[in-house]
UniProtKB/TrEMBL annotation:
This is Uncharacterized protein LOC111316007. Residues 95-305 form the Serine aminopeptidase S33 domain. It holds the Pfam family Hydrolase_4. InterPro entries: AB_hydrolase_1, AB_hydrolase_fold, Hydrolase_4. It comes from Durio zibethinus. The gene is LOC111316007.
């Protein structure tokens, strides 16, 4: 277990829970099961490759993924949006978990049960364009659409200010959301934040045929496996292979290439100018030896955020 060096942010950064109760329906009076039924314990909308995954935490969380109807501007009907809703409601404000670039809610397979065991009301969400939503009609998946989709999901089902957690590019998603919808966010937790990239850069100018070729490479097992080796240090080969399958499971969704190219050519996230506009207290967690996002950028973010505090992992 990684040891944490805490800055001046209090240990109760995520907020304490005073009362916890089991609930049969979500806030807003809605109880939704995965549309399309359940196949062998997994929601039938998940790719069949989910059966090959061995990690028990990933399998358990995958069985809990649901699709909730979320209305967005560009669609006359709702988008069935994938997420893991909570089994409990608490007096404390909910914790909402985003994910990294081109990933899914399964990133939280290990942490999510711990949050629940602590009595927290936790939501693990799939950002529009990634994860396991039903995007067969291919809505725009630019930053504005992702932001508004997240707001509509919050407005329809969560309805209270949240502790918004964003790892890597998810930190940029969190900052963009917190600045544009401050009423929805009580605090931010940013993990190894990747917030200084100026969007997708020159990738936005690629001809579509080249963009599709690049996206096809992004899906390949060797590239995902390499990324997995960078993210996790010292794990057995068999586990690394299995976790690679977890990390690329959403790539098997039929719309994945189209929405990924759509995001790429749209320009992506560029939140540098928004950082100083963040009003919420923000906890930054970063790894001193992180091989993907340098800790120097995390420290830069700490000093630029008006209310930033930090914690570092020594592993």
């Amino acid at each position: 277990m990684a040891a944490l060096k805490l800055g001046s942010f209090p240990p109760t950064a995520l907020g304490g829970v005073t009362v916890t109760k089991k609930c049969e329906r979500l806030s807003g009076g809605v109880k939704v099961v995965g549309d399309g039924g359940i196949d062998n314990g997994f929601p039938s909308f998940l790719p069949k490759e989910v059966e090959k995954i061995k990690d028990p935490f990933a399998r358990n969380l995958a069985r809990r993924i649901q699709r909730l109807p979320v209305q967005i501007r560009c669609s006359e009907s709702s988008i069935m949006s994938s997420c893991v809703p909570p089994l409990v409601q608490s007096d404390a404000n909910p914790v909402v978990l985003l994910h990294c670039f081109d990933s899914s809610c399964l990133e939280w397979r290990r942490a999510y049960p711990l949050l629940e065991d602590s009595g927290l009301e936790a939501w693990a969400l799939d950002v529009l364009g990634w994860g396991f939503s039903d995007l067969g009609r291919l809505p725009p998946c630019n930053v504005a659409s992702k932001r508004y989709h997240l707001y509509q999901l919050w407005k329809s089902y969560i309805k209270r200010p949240v502790v918004l957690v964003g790892p890597s590019l998810g930190a940029a998603v969190a900052i963009d959301f917190a600045v544009n919808y401050p009423e929805a966010v009580e605090k931010l937790v940013l993990i190894n934040p990747s917030v200084y990239a100026e969007g997708t850069g020159n990738l936005a100018k690629l001809p579509k045929i080249v963009a599709y070729a690049g996206v096809s490479l992004l899906k390949t097992f060797p590239l995902r496996f390499y990324a997995n080796l960078l993210a996790f240090n010292g794990i057995p080969l068999s586990k690394s292979l299995d976790w690679t399958n977890v990390g690329r499971l959403h790539c098997h969704m039929p719309w994945w290439k189209d929405v990924t190219v759509n995001f790429m050519v749209s320009g992506g996230y560029n939140v540098v100018s928004q950082i100083k506009q963040v009003k919420q207290k923000t906890l930054i967690i970063y790894g001193e030896n992180d091989k993907i996002v340098t800790n120097h950028l995390a420290m830069r973010l700490l000093f630029e955020l008006p209310k930033g505090k930090y914690a570092t992992s020594t592993t």
